[in-house]
Every structure is written in structure tokens, then in C-alpha cells.
Amino acid sequence: MGKYDFEYTDVFFNQTKEEVISRIQNSKHKQDWLASNVHEVSEENARLSKMLNYPGLREEFIKHGYATSFEENDYILSPVLYQNIYKGRLGEFVGRFVIKKELGIDLEELSIEEFERFDFKRGKVYIDFKHWRYSSYGANTITNKILNKLDEVEGKKAIVINIFDENEMDKIIESNRIIEIPALLENDGFHANPEAINKIRMCLEDCKND
To answer: Residue 51's closest CA among 15, 11, 86, 4?
Structure first.
């Protein structure tokens, strides 16, 4: 398991996040640290329905055989698989589709040597799509990790793109080699974030001949 992957000590079924937090807080052995670190596995938490509001995305999901809703079945995603794999794949798939639709750019796959360092690239610009908040791990730690990966692939710049902004007030952060986009889509999912699209366009155009 990677350094920034999620692990879980307890699993609660058929309860909302709020119900689980209340249950922990009211339990005989109250654990405040556990109540503040509850993660939810659900269609709402994945923001799947909001994603599928984006024009053409639902059809693209169906075309590739991806689920467009969470339905009752014999099996469920484990919390680790849901957080570390499923949501990550959602971010990659949705992000690439939106960039193609908005900018007409089909992002490149990584070579074998570059695999797992980023999601896609465009020349010397490397792109990482996120579908979860990573700021709690420490900005400096994350920045250094990205810079190290850029050096390994001899990249010029990295764009880290979150699909939705959970805080709804984060701003684009830009340094010499890293651009952090807090939201690729507007909160309802129907439209791409114009500020994000413009920033991505400018970066890719500035670096296209490198």
C-alpha cells in the first residue's frame, strides 16, 4: 500500500456517515479521533450523479461498460478499493474526457518507464487527476513528492487537477513547475470550470513546443 493510500480499522454497513459519527460519539468507548476520520462509500460521496450531468459523459460511461449508479447487488466495493482505486479511476476517466471535449486535446498515455508517476501527459507537461482531497497530508510533502516525480520523468511542469472542489472556495495555485486546479467541473457537474479550462489551455500551449 502506498504512503498516501487510505486504510480503515472499522467498517459500518447500511448507515450514513452522520449516523456512524453519532454512534461513535455516543459509544461507551468514545473515540474522537475515529469520529473525525470517517469515510463514506456511496454514490453521493463519489459524486457520480453530478459527474454524469456533464454533457456526453453518461453515454461515455455506458459505452465503456461503467456503472452509472450504485445498485443493490451481491457484492460491494471494499472501502480501500473504493477510495484508492475506484475514485482514482473515476478522476482519470472523467478528467480526460472533459479535457478532450473542452480543448480538443487527447491526452497521451504514459510510457512504461513513466507509469504510476502521473496519469497522462502532453509533451513535457504531466497531468494528475484527483477525486479526493489530499491537502490534509501536508502541502510541502505533496509538493516535494510531485517535484521528485517530475524530475524522474524529466518533465517541465505538472498540473494536478481535482474534479470537484469540496471546499467551494479554493483558488488555483501556481508555482514554477506545479499548477493545482481545485475544480475541473462546476459544483453541479453540468459545466466545466472556465477558469480551470483557461489555465490548463494556457499551460499546454506555452509548453507545446518543449
So the answer is: 86
